[in-house]
Design a protein that fits this description.
heterotrimer; A mainly alpha (309); B alpha/beta (519); C mainly alpha (356); A: 309 residues; ABC transporter involved in vitamin B12 uptake, BtuC; C: mainly alpha; 13 helices
Chain lengths: 309, 519, 356
Amino acid sequence: MNIDLTIAIIITMVGASTPLLLAALGELVVEKSGVLNLGVEGMMLTGAVVGFAVTYTTGNPWLGILAAGFAGACVSMIFAFLTLSLFANQVATGLALTIFGAGFSALFGQSFTGKPIKLFKSIFPDYLTEHPILKVFFDHSPLVYFSLFMVFAVSYFLHKTRAGLVLRAVGENDHSAHSIGYSVIKVRYGAVGFGGMMAGIGGACFPLLLTPQWVEGLTGGRGWIALALVVFSAWKPTRLLAGAYLFGLIATMEVYAKAAGGGFRIIPSELWASLPYLATILVLVLISMRHKMSSSAPACLGKPFISSN
Amino acid sequence: MNNEQSLRLELEGIVKAFPGVLANDDISFSIKKGEIHALLGENGAGKSTLVKMIYGIMKPDEGTISWNGKPMNIANPKAARALGIGMVFQHFSLFEAMTVLENIALGMDEKMSKKALEEKVVNIMQKYGLSLDPKRIVSTLGVGERQRIEIVRALLLNPKLLIMDEPTSVLTPQEVAQLFNVLRQLSSDGCSILYISHKLDEIKELCDSATILRGGKVVATCDPKKETAKTMAAMMIGTSLQAINKVKSKEFSDIGFSVNNLSLRGAGDFGVSLKDISFDVYRGEILGIAGVAGNGQNELQLVLSGEILLKDKAKITMNNIEIGKMSAKERRKHGLCAVPEERHGHAAVPEFSLNDNAILTARNRQNMVRAGMINAKSAKQFTTKIIDEFNVMTTGHGASASSLSGGNLQKFIMGREILQVPDVLVVSQPTWGVDAGAASAIHQALIDLAKGGAAIVIISQDLDELLELCDSLAIINEGTLSQKQKVGVMSIEEIGLLMGGVHGENSSVSSSQKEVMAQ
Amino acid sequence: MQIRFEKKLEPSRKMLFATPILVVVLTMILGAIVFSILGYDGLGAVREIFLTPLTNSLKWQDLAVKAAPLIIIGVGLSIGYRANVWNIGAEGQYIAGGLAATGMALLTHNMSGWYLLPLMGVAGMLGGMAWVFLPALLRTKLKVNEILTSLMLTYVAIQLLNYLIFGPWKSPTAFGQPQTVLFNDWQILPYIIKGTIVQAGAPIAVLIAIMAWIIMSKSVFGFQVRTVGSAPNAARYGGFSENKTIWLVLLISGGLAGLAGMLEVAGPFNRMVPQFPTSYGFTAIIVAFLGRLHPIGVLIAGVVLAITFVGGEIAQTTIGLPNAAVGLFQAMMLFLLLAGDVLVRYNIKIVRARRA
């Protein structure tokens, strides 16, 4: 295989993985606190449309990203209020959030169809981004570096800080955490908000990193794959990175397989397009065969916390 | 040093009442500095209520708690910890997926750096010989190691009094020995220990003095080293049982239900494994299975009722049919009914109507099903019959189970099974939380059912109930069931010893045995 | 001051039925406000979406057409949700059912006879069941969460649809259009009311809802589903197998979604086209919840959601409201319903002062 193609594939793969990685990192923190927010897809769509709109109107993709994160956090608060304060069913509320995000983004995005936006300028000098070999490290959107930074930031937060310790404790045994004196609800509100922000930014990656235009439903179920990735990662940020890149590679293969022709032609493109979803199922199967889910999932995941006093 | 000063904790006239129950009735005793003091009593004797007041979880209605000679108002557990009172609960509050050190850090009231904490933890562990790797994940630890985390948590606060609630109920003999070493060392350092247990041998081995509770009252304070396990058992269980008025032992001929060499691995960390359990119950006989909670009763109940299926169908037989592999539904069709201990969500569905709760177990035996459809009329008839015959206080057959009081729901559940006239009935805690009048009605119904030829197994922690009701008795301890014996033949001491895990003394005859046999 | 929730001994039945009505009214009010803020004619939007489909008798037949698949899928989903089994991939099962029915139609294209439609119906149901088979197997054997597996298969179903109509099933006479041939007369649902567009789907939906009602309230199976969903331990004690229940409810919801797919492809579409996935399978989730997981409730909720669809189309032409607005209304309705549930299960008390 020639080296230029390999590098091109890697760059495409990293790009395709980034929205997944960001959204899944957010959801990982949410689930670590014991909450299952199935609305990732909806929050991503919300972030995508807001990110696009702000970038289009201001011409500044950085503002677009900020707005996307803020919008994601805002809609996640609807979920937080319903599930944490009103004890609504987390599964149903997450679904509602997805339907909401789909409706909101379709409505709000309609007027942006076919309009162009400016993307991020590269943050590295040309001789690095255009270097035939080194560009594999430098020819990426700033969002890619942000996502990588967040992998380590989340990992550090969860395992090296006291706040992260408390967050994990709340997800592990909410009643014990409550009796020791931690506010379960406050911690969970914070986690859900962070998850919303990350999903919003992840969603904004679609127009601001992948294809610079507005397409309705552009996330195409990536929010759901992000949920599966969290399971795949066994709630570990670094394994999430590997998982996201694996899925990015599968998604990228569709593009390059078509271009490559030859033997790849035998496999219909629809099968390539189905691969990420089939791979998700396969991963879920392998995970549950290999170790008991109970040992790695936060013990309180998806269960409402109703304080007894 | 005068006597006043050497007292660490002094309780005077402690009274605590709950609706309908006087849990602690005028309790007074004291613990000296460095003393290991046992608090001994059966389930429901009032031990845990008393301890919760010392640790600030509850407040006494009357009486004073004095700490180092001064009367104290202990507002909450944090205040108790600030005084120097530490507690190791029977059920640990640990975070499974976290390391030992993280668990300890989460429980600290004061903040300190991870490094400083680790140093402190390692120091304490070395000092008391508590071997524990601070970096291990809790879920990979055994029960004994988990308990050590709780002990370290308590020791980090430099306690002057350490309360241990049934600490050995889940430990292996080796772990018990290690624990005792730690406790003795603590005591020699001047830390007092309040040791709650019902295990007589352990108390004799470890404790300097013992306060024995029964029915919320102090019945004795003694030096366990000077007592025998038997005398303590007698004090713990009481001699009020002499008054039992029971028909002289009947003779039985047909075996109705039998369990043969049944073993089962316990599920999870707190599940108890059943070890080679065998017994026969004759038609017309009531067999009681006594024991302290958590010794395998739940597992036995589930495996007998068919909620846990066995691989070998011959392990359980009824009327000469092998039913070990049959589901609960199949067993019921063959005439085996059961009542589990937990009412809400197990014996009954709280949000369902009484009607639906009757359908839950009685649908096949009471002809409520025709061609897959439920016959509402016969369901209603049967429900109404239960309500009438067992005096269930409710607004009617349509009321939800959750709207009934615990006692009334228990009457309903017992009625539902007894009125199905099973050949075999397996019941856990038949009168748990039921008032005396209703309890005797349930007892009468059980006796009548047995008279009609049913084989009945009653699993209960209430020894009085078992002695009153049963023809024969076996004791379950750590998943092992003792030989079944006629109630009149077994002495109170023997029962107490078996419940306390002392085996192999079942041949001795004592004077108090005659008391039980006397009618 | 502090708001406290105290769990009611019994869920309030009054509130159980009152909240969905309250929710629809609140959605209209909130919708008017939100859409006014967004710069649309808020009141007009509510009028066109919620009222015009009811007042304009010409639109009633549209309601029947749209409500039928929503009701059929919603009934199936509600049975599963009752048992705490979360099939959210009904859209995929609906597509698979449509494809299976299409396959049967193509196979029998040169045949004729009344039996062709029932044959397609069976194929549709089997197609839907096939699409839920894997999630059921994985859930019962390996405890793999059915939410993700059933949803992932939806995307696979869409790809399968594309593959078939762009490839092997493409009509040779469609001038390169990605679609199958038109079904023959025996393969198209009959119109039940002359001069309208109402086909057999609508009465079948009503029939299914009524049958489900009887089964869920009167049969042992319905009782089993409710018991497994409310108290798994009690279900085991009562002699019900949890795994069997999961299998049954998943096969039923998949089968019904597949049937809805067959009724759509043999009804309004008459052939398989790329526009076949209309997200009825997703909307049916809202229908199931709004209908309180009760078959008759689902029947009513199906009509309510159909109103919003038809109303959305009206609002698009009359006041230029984008079609996507409907989705927003539907999501709002579901949010409000979930929030309203707190009234059913809890007493809300305002506590004046905190105790020290």
